[in-house]
């Protein structure tokens, strides 16, 4: 699976003298090795090795020998083209012929489709983050970034036609990036106070209106209980028109939160709107309204990081990872609302929503970490505790998602765990520079994250598809990145260390998969196998 390509190779590929022949030769060797050993290696490693090698060589070729401004523009174009290409190939894989009774062939087809679609998602995340950060590097050429976002919007729309809620989240995310990049900054600065106050007024008015309907219904039931208890079974008033107006106002508040994430009152307005949507969803028994409320709640936590802790990419990353950890904890806490696995309360029905949004927070963290790495903001003076907390929370989010992938067999959780581990690279690098005065390269930290994921998942009895995702990350994508960086940047101490750590991750991944297969065939070591 293509995951860790961007962060290390951008810094390495800025040099003018890059031997592209050596890069493509190594990419070809990796791709051929992945193809020839695809049936011998653990599932996911062969396809991920091919996809990572081709993507990395394409990125290095596009960035080598270009100026910084032109390189940022080419980076967005290449990543957008890779996202579209991998998505088209992933959909085309569905048409591979499979003979009746050839189940392994069908499994290989599904595995290839899984790897290609994951590559498209990660390339799209990287391209979207670059498009949002692009005006900071090239204010005279913002049109290319907008075109990239429009293409990614079409890609997310095509994905949402036949896939589930994660496609909808991707569509909303790209749309938010497009709106944030398209709206003139001067207009927002001029009307900053008016928009913020309007958001708070609309959110507070909506919540008061909904609470008024709740109070009116409570008063009605109290009177009916005294006068005619038989009417207690009558359904409550629906207030359809009022609720539609209130939900529309909540949507406008959410849009304002995307436009003004650093305003001090934005998190308050978003939380009030979230409470409004959750109340409407409870009264109408609408899971859709509840989902909108949880989305606004997560957005409020994200903007709290930007508005109250640290403006810019760093604060957004801290708020996003905090939102992911909180939503996953909320989903686990709400599991007590299940009766024999079935929900019997509103909170129980929202468990899948909270879990999905917790998984979706990891790709958002990855995109924000990429934006922080691309912008000059990452080098500004900050207190150390903020990036330290962000790094710890990223690793905690990765661990929680690994547990969910193991327990629920969620591929999205497995992908999110790997992305959260990569997102921890940016704040970790900052902490090492400030505290230990050690400048560890991004490629070395990515290799260490790959080894950490391999250690974390070595003893996990996860389903095969989730193991394929973890194996593709720690056993294929990370080593390919390390060896490509070794060719691009030269054999210095950092790249050699990264290659060694990545090699250890490969060995651990292969050994863990072999041990798991032996356990699956022979049964659990503590129990005899049952035939």
Q: Describe it for me?
A:
The protein has about 525 residues and is mainly alpha-helical. Helix content is about 80%, strand content about 0%. The protein contains 21 helices and two strands. A hairpin with a 2-residue loop joins strand 1 and strand 2. The longest helix is centred in the middle third of the chain and has 36 residues, at about 190-225. The two termini are about 35 Å apart.
SSE topology sketch:
Elements: H1 6-12, H2 20-36, H3 45-63, H4 68-92, H5 103-137, H6 143-160, H7 165-182, H8 185-190, H9 192-227, H10 240-259, H11 266-284, H12 287-309, H13 313-333, E1 338-339, E2 342-343, H14 346-349, H15 351-374, H16 385-408, H17 411-423, H18 425-436, H19 442-458, H20 464-489, H21 493-522
Antiparallel strand pairs: 1-2
Q: What is this entry, summarized?
A:
It contains 21 helices and 2 strands.
Strand order of the main beta sheet, please? 1-2
- The general outline is globular
Please trace the helix and strand order, writing H or E for each element: HHHHHHHHHHHHHEEHHHHHHHH
Number of strands: 2
**Helix-strand makeup class:** mainly alpha
Largest sheet: 2 strands, antiparallel
Q: Quickly count the helices.
A: 21
Oligomer: single chain
Q: Note the gap between the termini.
A: 35 Å
* Helix percentage range: over 70%
Overall mean pLDDT score? 82
| Cα radius of gyration in angstroms | 25 Å
Low-pLDDT residue intervals, each spanning 5 or more residues? 137-141, 524-531
